[in-house]
Amino acid sequence: MPHDAALAALETVLGDRLSRSKPDLEAHGTSETHFPPTPPDAVAYPETTEEVSRIMAICTDHGLPVVGWGAGTSLEGHALAVQGGLCVDFARMARVVEVRDTDMVARVQPGLTREGLNAELRATGLFFPVDPGANASLGGMASTRASGTTAVRYGTMRDAVLALEVVLADGRVIRTGSAAPKSSAGYDLTALMIGSEGTLGLITELTLRLQGQPEAIGAATCAFETIDTAVEAVTETIQTGLPMARIEFVDAATVAAVNAHSKADFPARPHLMVEFHGTPAGVAEQAERFGEIVAEHGGTGFAWADRPEDRSRLWRMRHQAYWAILAARPGTTAIVTDVCVPISALARAVAETQADIAAAPIPAPILGHVGDGNFHAILLMDPDAPAERAAAEELSRRMAERALRLGGTVTGEHGIGMGKLRYMAAEHGAGWEVMGTLKQALDPQGILNPGKMLQQD
Amino acid sequence: MPHDAALAALETVLGDRLSRSKPDLEAHGTSETHFPPTPPDAVAYPETTEEVSRIMAICTDHGLPVVGWGAGTSLEGHALAVQGGLCVDFARMARVVEVRDTDMVARVQPGLTREGLNAELRATGLFFPVDPGANASLGGMASTRASGTTAVRYGTMRDAVLALEVVLADGRVIRTGSAAPKSSAGYDLTALMIGSEGTLGLITELTLRLQGQPEAIGAATCAFETIDTAVEAVTETIQTGLPMARIEFVDAATVAAVNAHSKADFPARPHLMVEFHGTPAGVAEQAERFGEIVAEHGGTGFAWADRPEDRSRLWRMRHQAYWAILAARPGTTAIVTDVCVPISALARAVAETQADIAAAPIPAPILGHVGDGNFHAILLMDPDAPAERAAAEELSRRMAERALRLGGTVTGEHGIGMGKLRYMAAEHGAGWEVMGTLKQALDPQGILNPGKMLQQD
What we know:
Two copies of one chain form a homodimer. Chain A is of the alpha+beta class. Chain A has helices spanning about 5-15, 20-25, 50-60, 115-120, 140-145, 150-155, 155-160, 190-195, 225-240, 250-260, 280-295, 310-320, 320-325, 345-360, 385-405, 425-430, 430-440, and strands at about 20, 40-45, 65-70, 85-90, 95-100, 105-110, 125, 160-165, 175, 200-210, 210, 215-225, 245-250, 270-280, 300-305, 335, 340, 365-370, 375-380. Chain A has four domains: about 5-90, Uridine Diphospho-n-acetylenolpyruvylglucosamine Reductase, domain 2 (2-Layer Sandwich); about 95-210, 2-Layer Sandwich (Uridine Diphospho-n-acetylenolpyruvylglucosamine Reductase, domain 3), CATH 3.30.465; about 215-325, Alpha-Beta Plaits (2-Layer Sandwich); about 330-425, 2-Layer Sandwich (Alpha-Beta Plaits), CATH 3.30.70. In chain A, helix 1 runs antiparallel to helix 3 (about 50-60) and helix 9 crosses helix 11. At the A-B interface, strand 9, helix 8, strand 11, helix 9 and helix 11 of A face strand 9, helix 8, strand 11, helix 9 and helix 11 of B.
């Protein structure tokens, strides 16, 4: 094995927390979607920042690739060891380090999941708002600049992370930011690390901004004839200043899949799912205004989920839409696309995508975070049917190129990983070269998550 | 002159928009506060990004330092040409390029001021919320990661800037971000440029996130016995989830100066000034709850400024506090400090600072953005009295070091410039070396705003 010396050195640091077992390598070489398996040479389970620093120094000495691993929920193959090397699994660094009620911040380790954090926060009156659907690790969410259903109100990981501890390629440990709510002291290294997908360092601790649990929550659904009218209603709601906590769009095909999977009976038309957070009077007022806006735009079947259990069911259905859609066509896998456009271009982007899908040989339900201009198509394909894969890839390519043409981005929240690398030049132009310059400056050997995001030699 | 060749080359690009007049050089070598004048060798007034790119290429060829200039309102000497060279004044790049109502964004040139933008937005129902008090240029505000009174609700320039056009040291033009509300596509170059104080590039265009003008606004003042009780009231208000649009603290000394300057009659005690934005019913509800919280914490004299003119007067007084304080001691200049700490440490930070000031030979009123943990002391000194300057510098140093000890930052919103360079190592440790590595990668000759922010050779 070419990496024997490196792995031996790692073993002296980690003992039996360096795994080379076949099931472990396979589990860390597989992703949730359609990418071919690429197992690492070994999996490390560090327990401290100090260990991560020593691991990194060894990998630098030996030129061994290093890929971080959280919960494995990436949809773009971020954590695949495409050049082999070491997978650093943060399963044993998954604690809440500290919750500071008055400051409304939590310090956490990167392997902790968002649901794990919220379970620990339940009694505090605080919660962590970023909700990508999957129970992702917080380190992974920071690394991909994740967001999800609540970004329209609470922002993305860019907004939710106040400070980081990061181990650099050479083993140095830096602390970026602080628990102070803001700072103008120097380059925003926190923001540089967020969304860098493990190519500039490994995150070993996060300081997260928490929110107060809302006193009152109201959730509702309503049906529209077309995506255009649904988007118009959303645009007007935003401009009116109504602070929606979530505003989700699902198309008729998604509704059909959800109905079948969750034994629900929504009309088979495009729907909006909305949620408001606030005081009882505030939520009631927002609900009333939203109802008026919906009616003006031809929305029907407007129904509030008043009871907490009805609301939970509603969002469970939304979060399970991906699985519902997969279940609707057994034996298939999916390319889950992710584009984001200016709100003014959203209706057009969705309509043109729907036209593409109607002409394609595969089904592809659409759903998205309509308040952010962000939507997904679940491109269902038989992985063994080359024509279906080609059709899915063509639809995905057309969506990405359309998003750029309309002034948007090829990924609103899933990240680049393996799937979007081909569009980086088109999206960023000379900016992509600048990213390469920064990468070269901080990781001159290119050992951090090689094969991802940056221009490949 | 050592720079003759460079200036001649610049003149071929700019003609008479390259100025070497003495008044122009002096005006661009002076700052609003206490730093000694350091004029540039010439001032350029470009009109297009293309011109800025050509300017930068010439400066790179000749190794000529380049410093950007907006409205000259920096409090830390950011735009001073401490190594001479070229000052690039964006006075002729100060237009609104485009307002996109549906997307709630504006594209603007860097020389436009925030008041200029808001004047143009008045009829649209939208406004740009970041308000540092001074009528700063938007390019300068981005470069220093400015914020101000409304950050508690609407965030800082980090949150308000969606996309940038930047001219790099070598003349390349990059576009970072887009008008889409979010993106996970690669390194966050927008955030890297925001707060980089002209050391990584010159911003030639900004895409800004706008907000809907609130339907209703309520503003109020109330007095407290101590900073502790005032901060407790603010903390509880934030945790309750009441969305304050502004929440400002002024100490008794500031109140006295404001009373004298604005012919007001506030009781000479610490005050909070608060503002709520929303629907009429929402603002009324928030006002009522805030009043209850204030009463619980011993706040008195709670008074709403219901009429728009009363509200305008209130915030004009707050914004003029700096001038009121200067006027209270004619012939003095000021070191305007700026620290930011976690909210839980704010009362202690202010109280210890007040104790320092009480023991010092100079007056120093305190005021700040209490919802962000950010406060300032206006250290008034006779510039010709070395003992006063020494006392002011000592107070400032103790505030900065205290902020770090309490887990905060040496600047919440004013930036590093000349005044805070000495604290960068203490605040960032190895992170400051990383900033130097990034600077070296993007500006290997060090021509961009030399002498600021980074480790000096």
